[in-house]
């Protein structure tokens, strides 16, 4: 009899008792391939000995020192590593304990930045429909997923949403990617003007949309146009790399592939690799200077920010991510995963699109391939796929509401970067069988 309020009260979960490499074993002795890294978290697999050792060493030194009294070598080291890796223009780090905290901190940072520079009228946040930025009140309000927001809407702060960059469904036939990017840019600019250009503080977007769309990257030039518009109106660009960052798409930061540098970036998930809860906001010199030359403090903070053991785990994870074999394996195995999915599912009448970058791939399920008509949401195809996959020893990350927050289903794959070719093939085989069983059930 559990005393935990589990995510879903009606289902009985298996008990995870061990993790090794890319697999998790439950108390019944069943082993599951972690094809989704949980929720795109376990980038180095489970029980990585070097990360565990780094945590143990730190525990032997100091486990906790409140950040209003002390800094620590390990937190400073992690910040140095992240800035060394980040594109030029991202110069400082604010450490937190997860993705939602990172997004909340970035929003408050944006707001305080404008207060510091004497533009306290700026208050509007614009984000995109079909995005996910976390579950705390500010992050949930920023996200554009109708289902997640619905019952909490009356208590969410005001935010505004424009279209996502979702070529599979929204790029019109005959429209070029450039023209599509331009159409979306015009929509953003119109929204800014509608709200009052000097009252908008930030535009928030995931470079590659994860949970809500299933590994949907932008068309070329989209983020360049977004950056230009933000610059034109003096609006901060916040890119949320909580899911797609830390090497998931084959580069440490997904935004490196877009040729833009935002003012603020949020990271989490793969940063701690599941070994510790940790997240961060990376910020530009300009934002930092506004605080440093202004009030001299960022009016924020949580008890566990900059936690030394979390920083030790993340520092080791980041060091491993930069080893010469790791990103090439993400790209190589990512290509293999895409090719495997294409060949196993490309002809399926129920698979509309297979997409993604690196080891971040999405499969969109449809009832009719030609019209892209989704399944009736009452069939809960995504839940069925999860169940069928688990029965076949595969963890994947299916989600509903892909099209509009209610209709549509997709499956997200985000396996650990240490994955080997035969394991990629097993994921494909098991997922194909699970999708087949789910749509036939
Ligand atoms: N931002 C993005 C893009 C995410 O995918 C998530 C979680 O899935 C979050 C923020 C929230 O992160 P967390 O669940 O660690 O609070």
UniProtKB/TrEMBL annotation:
Cofactor needs: pyridoxal 5'-phosphate
GO CC annotation: cytosol
Pfam families, per the entry: Aminotran_3
PROSITE patterns from the UniProt entry: AA_TRANSFER_CLASS_3 (PS00600)
Keywords per UniProt: Aminotransferase, Plasmid, Pyridoxal phosphate, Transferase
InterPro entries in alphabetical order: Aminotrans_3, Aminotrans_3_PPA_site, PyrdxlP-dep_Trfase, PyrdxlP-dep_Trfase_major, PyrdxlP-dep_Trfase_small
Domain of life the protein comes from: Bacteria
One GO MF term attached to the UniProt entry: transaminase activity
NCBIfam families: PRK07483.1
Family of this protein: Belongs to the class-III pyridoxal-phosphate-dependent aminotransferase family.
Name by which UniProt lists this protein: Aminotransferase family protein
Species the sequence originates in: Rhizobium etli
